[in-house]
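Q: Could you write out the predicted structure for this multi-component system? I'm mainly interested in how the pieces pack against one another.
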Amino acid sequence: DTEVTQTPKHLVMGMTNKKSLKCEQHMGHRAMYWYKQKAKKPPELMFVYSYEKLSINESVPSRFSPECPNSSLLNLHLHALQPEDSALYLCASSRSTDTSQAQYFGPGTRLTVL
Amino acid sequence: GESVGLHLPTLSVQEGDNSIINCAYSNSASDYFIWYKQESGKGPQFIIDIRSNMDKRQGQRVTVLLNKTVKHLSLQIAATQPGDSAVYFCAENTYGQNFVFGPGTRLSVLP
């Protein structure tokens, strides 16, 4: 089973709203990732969690706040977003970050900021 | 044929033909590579991977070739089907670093 699930599938929010994206995997993976993908572009890495600790933050604005409550769950809290933040947000997981490992992606959350 | 323009490069093939999607990677130290398939509105789906100690790896209807000399990766799809229509990304990884994704190629299967 290589399934990563994400909710919600679609999200529309105003610039003053607070919302959260959720990601879950039950493969026993200890590394989880958030990516942002704009139309016709490859995914761009935002955050990496390794063993539930934030290990990489790719200079992402503070209006995006990640959280890893346990080894299976990853959240992305959103606050005061801008219209240019509209994109597909992808979660991925891999066994670890210790060695090169395959990353498996979820279906994504399509976010629209009005 | 293949076209590269202002938008995503597109490869158009006839149903039943073989497809070859190419990727030039940037880091000669990269030691692990993945091909992903992304259908419209979905997340990238893992297709096949290869490590730098191999030149070729085969899966079901897919083959990945790695030429480290010229830093080139290719994905061959045999007997291309309409369900193969998607955007294909290559991703390279160097131990301890993040994956770097290629720009993607759109495969369009013609009836």
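A: Regarding packing and overall arrangement: Residues 6 and 107 of chain A are 7 Å apart (CA to CA).
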